Amino acid sequence: MTTLHGYILRDLLKAFLLTQIALTALFTVITGGGLWVRYEGVSSVDALTFMPLVVPIVLTFTMPVAALFATALVYGRLAADNEWLACRAAGLNVHRLFLSAMLLAVFVTVFTLLAGNYFIPGLVRELTWSLQSNVRDFAFQQLRNKGHIRQQQRFFLTAEGVYGVPRDQLEQRGFPTGPGFSYILVEGPTFLQLSPGGDVERFTVAQSGLCQFDATGRDVRVTLWVSQARDFTPASVVNVSGQKIGTITFPIPLPNKPAWQDLETLRRWRVEPWHGDKITEATRAFIDELTVSRVYAECRRQLAAGALELSDGQSRRFRVSAGEVRVARGDRPLLHEARVEERDASGRLLRRFEAPRAHITAHPVPNGPPLIEVELAAQGDRRLLEIDPASGGQVARDRPLTIDAVTPEALRQELGAFTPQAVFDERVELPLTGELSDKRLGLLASGETFRRKIDAQIQFRLGFASSALVTVLMGAVLGVMFRGSQALAAFALACVPFGIALILMFMGRQLGENRGTELAGLIVTWGGLAGVALTDLVLMRLGVPR
Q1: Angle in degrees, 0-180, between the axes of helices 51-80 and 120-132, rounded to the nearest 10
Q2: Are 231 and 243 in contact (CB under 8 A)?
């Protein structure tokens, strides 16, 4: 029996490998062509360099189809050559001969599961980043073929000609030529920069230009040096012999969607949903708003108690007081009859400011406490006074005066507790206003939605990998039933339940992402596979007698 299983398995592996090679080559060429068309401007040579990243992806997704075709072909040949009938006449239970097909199905399932959860997400991210960050070749092809290039409807560059630049010439002129740096020489460039509102900010015409692409980071930075140029701005027109334009940063976004992540990352993100593609920015904005709100509340509390104590983080101390404190737009404290005393580290009074009005603004700082700005201003015919306590002299000001300070140390410890973990933990009480409470509820709802997407993605990957266990067996059964005379018909017929199961898996993923239909998503996904498995048993029972 072992010899017989080995004989079938060898034929099965031969057919599987040949089919897999053919399908992988075909779909790799199709995928490469699609990438070349999608990322217009990337040369065919560049597209070929991305093929090593494309092949494993195509291999994984075509493997179930290759296994299905191979089993239908091999088991159909066994039946057509009467080998199947001979085994049955010898008293063997021919259902055991499907063991080789099941071994192949298990291999495909394990490979697809591991690749889809650990290797493919990283390859897809790397492929996307490589294509998007290939700005130099994109710009070169666009300028050579079309004569112009644009970015985000804000930056436009045209050229009469475009050329490569020898490395030794760049090094002689002191330009960096290490990994990540690339250049193109532009003849007769014109550069146009628009504001977000569509107004012209800058227009430059030059005899020649050198364009540098710095891809050493995740964002590509582009700098243009022009010679014999005429630079137009809304305020002036200047003729220059040489000028630097830029640097312009081109962000290369990599979406933090569940489909792009490996299994370990998905499991971690399920516990920490603030890593979601859109939730990250919303969480950061919420924490900044919460931090600023808390700073304003503390400033109002101290002012109501008598005075607000601030410092510049070094040797200067500021004591702020006011006759009346109101709340301005954005919850900012608005001070009337403001008074500020500036002292050194020893407590000696250096200056005193008196203003009819002032307002306090907190500016969020990434990964740190906010900076506090006290702006003193005149009002009507009342001017801002700066008083020197040593001489008794005073200076009247018409322009506003700004005092920059840091968040007090006592408040920093409290603000440090405003973390994403605290925001998404409903057990943690935060000092929220009514508006912030609603925003927190929205973040919590977004986190739950993100968790459902992660669960649905994991179920989809598991279902797709497991589909080989039932569809490959069906291909073998149909191959025997058609006795090899119509192998393609058997394969096509076996693809029908495979396609139905795949559609149900997509439906199950969508249902799993929606609130209230998570269970329905599981039932649809695994119910479809169970239906195919039941069909396998019925076909084996009725169409392939023992």
Answers
A1: 140
A2: yes
Q: How many residues does the chain have?
A: 546
Q: Which domain holds residue 206?
A: 143-250
**Do 410 and 287 sit in the same domain of this protein?**
yes
Whether 129 and 147 share a structural domain: no
Q: Which of 78, 155, 100, 186 is closest to 484 using CA atoms?
A: 78
CA distance 490 to 75: 10
What average pLDDT does the segment 313-318 reach? 86
Shared-domain flag, residues 11 and 81? yes
CB–CB of 221/249 below 8 Å? yes
Of 371, 403, 423, the residue at which a domain comes to its end is 423
Which residues does 470 contact at the CB level (< 8 Å), separation at least 6? Answer: 497, 501, 529, 532, 533, 536
Assess contact for 194 and 154: CB atoms under 8 A: yes
Contact 204, 232 (CB under 8 A): yes
Q: 113 and 32 share a domain?
A: yes
pLDDT in tens, 327-340: 888 788 999 999 99
The CATH number of the domain holding residue 157 is: 2.60.450
Token pair, residue 49, equals: 């360099």
The 3-class secondary structure across 61-102, one letter per residue, is HHHHHHHHHHHHHHHHHHHHCCHHHHHHHCCCCHHHHHHHHH
Question: Tell me, what amino acid is at 474?
Answer: M
